[in-house]
Please model this.
Amino acid sequence: MKGSFLLTWLLCANFGDMASSFQSHNSLNRSQRIQSSKLQMSESNYDVVKVDLSEGRDYPIYIGTGYSDEQTAEMLSSHIEGTKALLITNDRISPMYLEKYESLIRQHKEVHTLVLPDGEEKKTMEVLQLILDKALEVGLDRKCTFLALGGGVIGDMVGFAAAIYQRGVNFIQIPTTVMAMVDSSVGGKTGVNHPLGKNMIGAFHQPQCVFIDTDNLNTLPDRELQSGISEIIKYGLIRDSDLFEWLEENMDDVLKRDALAMRYAVKRSCENKAEVVKADEKEAGVRATLNLGHTFGHAIESGSGYGTWLHGEAVAIGTAMAASMSARMEWIDQGLLKRTYDLLEKANLPVDLPLDSPMNQATFLKYMAADKKVANGKLRLILLKGELGNCEFTGDFDEGAMVETIDDFVAECQGAVV
Model:
């Protein structure tokens, strides 16, 4: 059975829409894009998107609904090369899903478990140390596999722990939030926060597979669902105009968690992410465009205190700021700016800072100066440019427009009032 799932992945990776052809969006002909908008999915209960990397490091993203216990057990265990696994989750996810996944993996492998405290503010070296302690306590060797069951915080920390434990062990992502499904679980970015900046300590470490069960979103709070949608909107803005237009027409279905709409939105997002990771695994160029809104957003998260905002909420405000700055420089027209605001608001995402925000110009500039995209002391931003679906990663922008945009957004904030 294990071999059959690996064979399914290899076959899917070579046949059509079921696994994605990894062409850039702009190279798709109109009929192909129309098919996508009509939600052409595989006849199976799951689709496979292949992340195509060099040196035999390709891995599948399984995206489905209604998995049987046998499917889940076989799929996951087929990507655990050794005999031992460490399944790690947080204290919010644990009561809902830990027992299920532990029992299924235990059918084929020896499995240990660890429950960490939940929250962005817990994404620290101190909490990551608990993973390493547990692995050593139960005697896990280099052939073990870590499994991350949860959202982006768990995925990032478990991936980083896997990258550094005995100089690197395998790991698997089992994302349970929209944010993790469409973004953080794919591409191998791992790490923890530092008091002076978000995700400043970490490594690139690719998983063995990503296992997405969209049924797990049924227990996700509305606020977290909406937070993750900000990353789906991002793909539409920077490279996939058809996805953006589909979201304009189908956002209500996504918010209602319609199974087909959610599966399509997650699948198309993963296809976009996989294409970019293939082209630029270590974020030397085009992959940086996936950070639209993140430079402003990370400053909001850090300056407001970790945990004040969900990541996607801060990114939504940051995206509004990036779009506003782009329009201020006349890189996009007012029509696209309005559509950006309208879609974010349709997803029930924030587009402004609240009156009680501690943010001000100095706080923004402080944290933006420490952004990972700064090169040789020069800040680089991802800004929208031209028609919908286009952007530019550049340090060649009007700094005055950036400061004016910041000033507009903090004008009425408590932190900016003298």
About this structure: Residues 156 and 400 are 35 Å apart (CA to CA).
